Amino acid sequence: MGVSMTSNNFERMKIVLDMIDPFDYDEFLRICDIEKVKPLSLNEYAMKVGYLQMAMVKYSEYPMAEAYLKVIDDANTQTPNQQNGCSSCGGKQDKPLPSLATQAGNLISAVGQHAMSGFTETSKETLEKRMTKCNGCEELRSDGRCSKCGCYMQIKAKWESAKCPASKW
Questions:
Q1: For the segment 77-118, what is each residue's pLDDT rounded down to a tens digit?
Q2: Nearest CA among 148, 45, 161, 41 for reference residue 110
Q3: What residue spans define the domains of the chain?
Q4: Is 89 buried (19+), middle (13-18) or exposed (0-12) by CB count in 10 A?
C-alpha cells in the first residue's frame, strides 16, 4: 500500500500543517472550504495525520513538509518485517511492526475514537503513568513505537480515549 505525494496532496497537507490543531477534522473541513480545496475523507485524513505525527517525532530536525515526505518514503520502502537494531542496548533487535495496512487501520480507529471523545487529553499524571508502563514494556521499540499497534506511544498515551494494545493501561 504505497502513498504518493502528488502536488494536490501536498497542497492539502499544507492546509493541515497550518492548522492549530491537526486533530480537528471539522476545522480542517472549514479551512478546505475557505481555501476552495477538495477535502480528504476522514479515513484518508486520519492516515495523513498519523504520517504527520511520525514526521514530527522521527524527523524533527527537518522542515515539516520535508519530514512528511521522508516518512512517506519510509512507508513506501519498508519491508513487512523490517527491524532496526537498538545501538544503545547492545544491538537488541526491535520487534517488527504490524503491516502498514494494520497500522493505518489502528491509526484510523484511534483518531476516530479521539475525535468522538472531543479530542480530550489525559492529565499530566495519567500521561506519566502510561508512559512509565510503556517504557517498561517489551513491546516498545527503540523508535518510540509500539510493536503491537505501530503507534508512537508518546502521542497516543496523551489521548484520553486511547487504549494500550497490550492492555497495560
A1: 654 444 444 444 445 578 898 888 888 888 888 888 888 888
A2: 161
A3: 7-77, 95-156
A4: exposed
